[in-house]
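Reviewer 2 asked us to include a model.

Predict the structure of this chain.
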Amino acid sequence: YLPAVLAAAALWGIGPGLAGGIAAALAYNFFFTEPVHTFRMDRVTDVVTVVILLIVALVTSRLAAGIRAQARLAAAHAARNATIAGLAGRLLSCSTEREIAETACAELRRLFDCNAMLVSGLPQPRIVAAVPEGNRLTPSDIAAAALTLESGEPAGRATPRLQPAEWQFHPLQSAAGAIAAAGLARDDGRPPVDDAQLPLLTNLLDQVALALERARADAGRSEVTGLRERDRLRSALLSSVGHDLRTPLTGIIAAAAELRREGGNDAVLVATVECEAGKLERYISNLLDMARIEADAVSLKTEPVDLVDSVASALKDLRPSLAEHPATVVLPDNLPLVRADAQLLHHCLINLIDNAARYSRVDGAIRVAATASRGEVRLTVEDEGPGLPQDAERALDAFSRIAGSDRKGGAGLGLAIVKAFAEAMGAKVLAANRGDGAGAVFTLLFPQALVVKASETADAG
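Predicted model (structure tokens):
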């Protein structure tokens, strides 16, 4: 009795198992209960026996059917996991985004028997790969793909969003959101996947998303490695050029100074040589300073510094460059001292004033002023030049030059060095246009922590 019921339930499910149990109970009644060869039962014990047999048949058939269903479910899960693992293994051999997209599209087409593509990019999604090749997107499809990339939800045919589209798009999710979208479509217009296939599709797309993230991370690391190598080579070149040129340049400057003292026949030519050599020396100093900054080799000797003396020293060193630009200095008598490295501050002022002279119009005035308020000291350098573009702060980046600076020369190092040296001292540099629109203004801001109080000065005295 029980083997027949178990076999029927295990092979064909609970329905055949129950049918087998009922048939077995009737056969028991027909062949083994009195009167024999009839379906009539005269004894209560026979009735109880048949009922118990039916209950046993029900329980065992349910158990057998449950085991059968679990076995089928386990087999389905194993097949799905094998499919996912197979795709993950194939994606490991892909190194670029396009290779990953082509592999994923080929696998989706094989598994779901439909056309497949991978799109990315906003606001105008682009096709990264498609199988078969040659598929194109209609405006409705493009809108559905963009909606999926923006919202991270499926869109397109057979979805609640943008059903008129021919393609159905599913997001490839990462921690930062949807990084791409997978499009599926059938030639006959039917939905490409049904509800039972969605879990498998979701797991497959998760593997593709992980592969895309890995590829992009690898590309980013390669780019960073390349940038570091270029920076290293650039720093080595800056240092080498600076040191190799400084010695002969020092000799040229000394020779020009000697000619000027001896009163050469062509005083103008000697002055020109001396002025241009001074400019070249400052340029080489900027190269060496930039190499020091990038090598993190800037050392500080902080001490109280008088900005009046610092400005006067910088203007004296820049006297040849300021020959065509009248300089106005507005420094209050009660200007407090600031804590700074005198040498680094001198470099900052040299570069700020030289930058103003470089970009000012011919005979344009240069104004150096300082104010003290709210515990801070602001030292400003104003010019009468073309001003700064809208992204004025970009002028403080290394190798960045203002529009039109090709007529002025320079490599865009001066302001970057000012920014780096100021930050090393704890100060800040601000770049903006003048309120009257007649040029640019650069501000060297010393916060309250760097301003020497009057009481401290008195105690030192």
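The radius of gyration is 42 Å. The chain is about 55% helix and 15% strand. We have added this to the supplementary material.
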